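Worked problem 6 (solution included).
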Amino acid sequence: SGLLIYKSHGVPERFGAMYTSPVDFGFGTSSDEKGRVVLIGDSHGLMYENTLKGLYGEVGYELLSYSRGGCLPLWNLERHDPGHSPNGCAQSVNQGYQRAIEDKQVKEVLVIGNFSTIWNVYDVDHPEQDAVNAGNTHSDDVKWQIFENQLEKSVKMLLDAGKNVVLFQAIPNLDFNPAACEDRPIRLFANKM
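Solution. The predicted structure is:
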């Protein structure tokens, strides 16, 4: 694949026109006929931001991004890692939900994230869920339960506001360990010369 990227002078396009810089295209303009799309994401949402702005812009939609690396893109969900203060995820992410719900021109909400990794999180309306503040961490089962509750709340809020919701899991879960591929021999040629 490295040779292909080199010979192609970069990564081949996967989504049609690939945009790399805001100078290269318009980020979309809102019109009464089309409207706006809100992107709420973690670092994976940020990864797709420019491409999505370009694609939506081509058809007359304005894409507004409320993405922040290290934050699960769910309503009221705060991240608190041991040895650190809570990182303000809820405040950042909630702005995207509030904009999506209150803005009548927003027709669709994209929620993009790596939902396969769940950190030490809690609902800010339930500070008793903050295990790190209590000096320990939650089991994976408890973390997933908090995640499920917030996912359900997040989607319900948007649907109740009449928005179309697209959940996008950016990283697929593999049914094998990719590190196991390291033991396979690498051959440059099928037949020896």
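Discussion: The first helix runs from residue 2 to 7.
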